[in-house]
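Lab notebook page, bench 4
Experiment: in silico fold of construct C2
Operator: M.H.
Input chain length: 195 residues
Purpose: comparison with the prior construct
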Amino acid sequence: MPRPPLAVPKNNPRAIVLSGPSAVGKTTVMRQLRAEHPELSIAPTVTTRPMRPGEVDGAPYYFVDGPTFDRKIEQGEFLEWAVVHGTFKYGTPRSEVDQARAAGRSVLIEVDLQGARQIRSTMPDAFFVFLAPPSWEELVRRLVGRGTEDEKERARRLQTARDELAAEAEFDVTVVNTDVGSVCRELVVLMGSSP
């Protein structure tokens, strides 16, 4: 099946939604995009999970406690939010996405499958990109190799990954993460910036 054209016209700023299973490399891709293209609009994430070593509040996550997150839900501050892996809450601040688009810039949003589905219903003009692993075995290797989860959490994430991989057809395009640089170049084109 031919892939759709990837370029987004500059006069049509869109939300570009990037999703895929745990350990597929979303965070690595986003980190490289931020380093190489600081001019790109990338939506931050608010989460209730604790900071990992080396993370700083506000770059790219805002870390809040449960009651604060719940207040933000009640006040309608999230474009999407979800409980991920049955444990922590993650959400995308609506105001950051709206501000970028109002300024004429496309904005990249990294979310899990639940978040992508919410955005599809609340922002139907968004463009959805599924980041896929080269193979199931490679996904398992990446998850185990990063060493950030215990065995129980890895098993939970692998089960979630199976469900997420089954939803690939819900997305507008699939990008296979065999090379982070190539994925970043495709996303830059999608956002309407020069590669």
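Observations: Residues 15-190 form a domain with the Rossmann fold fold (CATH 3.40.50.300). The chain has a mean pLDDT of 85.
Next step: discuss at group meeting.
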